[in-house]
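Session log. Operator J.P. requested a structure for one protein chain; no other inputs attached. Running the standard single-chain path with token output.
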Amino acid sequence: MLVPFQIILYNSSRFIPKLLKSFAALELGEHRVEIRFRDQSPEQTEVDLSRKVIEDFDFPDGVGFAYSQGKNLGFGAGHNRINSELGNGEDFFIINPDGMVMFDFVTQFMQFLTDHESNEWAILEASQFPAEHPKRFDPESFETKWSSGACCYINADFFKEVGGFDENIFMYCEDVDLSFAARSKNLQILHMPQVKFVHITQDLDAGKDRTFERIHSQAGSLYLRHKWATMELVDEYDSLIVNQDGYAEVRKLFESMSAGVGAGPRIASNDLNDFFVGTEFAEHRW
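Structure written below.
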């Protein structure tokens, strides 16, 4: 079986060697992997460096790659382009470039697929290591409320049916939006505890400036409430951030995102509390 991985690159050359080494160490058995890159870096020197690192890498049998380059469309739109330009209609992983796959990633993933072949799923979420995402998942059914886009496997038929990622979202919350689309169609989102992806999160990189992430996350949170829920929930969340630094930028971004999107609700009113849990989108384990 071919297991495709889609990766958006943006000034990512420093991450690529470790990422590729982790793919080279995979236990594949009879399976194959293709890594599909789209470089959206703004400077051609960075693009050239990343491409050279990829093309010079000694890929083992069973691991190949495809490459494309284009302007920075953001996370979701970039993955939509990879899928339309380099994909062949298969289910596929999306994965962040600043991480690594564990050596048994594919074998554990195949076992999970076999164990859940009768499930009607839209997204299968890998487990982040060493810092797990705190949101809850059912330890027996493995169902969870939404999937992180850091590393997950997406059902191609579902992805095509919903039109891919919502391109109104430049970055952050597009994974939640896709998860909401899955749940609105009564499709499952399953967490795979044994399929591990090493990911450097903010908890492990405390010195990183989080301003861009916070502004886009807050604008995305407003947008999801506008699109899927009610103006009451938009106003409620807005009241929590109105006095924070950068609020004007958050509001401007939200208004741009939502300009052509009719207000919700797109989910039943009695389900709202299951989609929006305070400022989060699921209950947390800690």
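Operator note: Residues 2-199 form a domain with the Spore Coat Polysaccharide Biosynthesis Protein SpsA; Chain A fold (CATH 3.90.550.60).
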